[in-house]
Amino acid sequence: MAYQIGADGSVALGPHSVPVPRTISPEARAFLARLPWSEEPQHDGPVPMWAIRDMVDQQMKRLSDVTLQQYPVAVDEIEIAGVRCHLVKPHDIPDEHRDLVLVNLHGGGFVLGSGALVEAIPIAHQARLSVVAVDYRLAPEHPFPAAVDDVVAVYRALLRDHGAPQIGIYGSSAGGFITAQSIMRLHKEGLPLPACCGVFTAGGDLDDLGDSAQIFTLMGFWGDRVLPSHHDMSEIRAYLGDADRADPLVAPIRGDLSSFPPTLLITGTRDALLSATSSFHRALRHAGAKAELYVFEAMPHAHWYMVHLPEAREAVDVMVRFFLDRLRASG
After folding, report:
1. Same domain (yes/no): 156, 240
2. What is the CATH number for 252?
3. Which residues does residue 104 pair with via DSSP β-bridges, in sequence order?
4. Which residues contact 81 (CB under 8 A, 6 or more apart)?
5. What's the rounded mean pLDDT across residues 46-68?
6. Helix (H/G/I), strand (E/B), else coil: 207
7. By three-state DSSP, how is residue 108 classified?
8. Digit-coded pLDDT (tens) for 244-263
9. What does the pLDDT look like over 186-219, one tens digit per residue?
10. What is the dihedral of CA 308, 311, 313, 317, to 10 degrees?
11. Which residues lie below 8 Å from residue 190, measured CB to CB, with a gap of 6+?
12. Do residue 138 and residue 238 come from a single domain?
């Protein structure tokens, strides 16, 4: 069933209409009235996400620049353990935050997003601490576990100057999945786990994204971006390659989550990964791990990228409070 978005942001599904909730901000209503993929170039047929990498990376660079104007910080390109990173630092770091650091893993479907800082900049500014944004290797050129290898290498290097209780790891979408995979890998290698992590609009099993992804695919909703994980053009297939999809290092939800650090999960009711995020939250709680879930009404995938939205600022505030509470408690 195809959908149409009305001028007021409502969604028409055949003869049925889903109105925009009155509880969201005027800015969010205006945002929902625009097609998220309206700027994507037209092609004769479907193309894989990595084929439009250059175009999307340019968009992400512009978005990072806009974010930097709203949240001024210092940004330096650095290398840690042979991995390209960006060090994002607020202009004023209080003494009690100087030894704290967050590691950010950007989104981009595992195949694009290099150098994107829209997740790192607001957190560094609002939390007043340093964020290391890891420019992990991308699929299909570098399938699993290349990205996780990069994250682990950076984390090992940070442990030389920081205690594990002074470090947190977080990411959105692909970065959220890689965050969970990295925690499982750190645990397997016997490394001390970080004080906390953020798994935002992501989950613990790339082979089963759950009910919401299936519904959105049937509707062609939000740009028809949810492809079956074995599809030739699926970014998930490109990322996982020949990896065993039942391996807990690949699908953390299938492993022992009892040692997982305190985790914050965030999604929205118009996010195709709503089910994946909420299912991972339940799995963490079932395992006895500490986990908090926030679901934003009517918000689409990674809505905090749209920094002009009040709901985006609220999500950033939730993230900052969670990270600071956990880092302070553990530091």
Report:
1. yes
2. 3.40.50.1820
3. 133, 170
4. 153, 154, 156, 157
5. 90
6. coil
7. coil
8. 999 999 999 999 999 999 99
9. 999 999 999 999 999 999 999 999 999 888 777 6
10. -170
11. none
12. yes
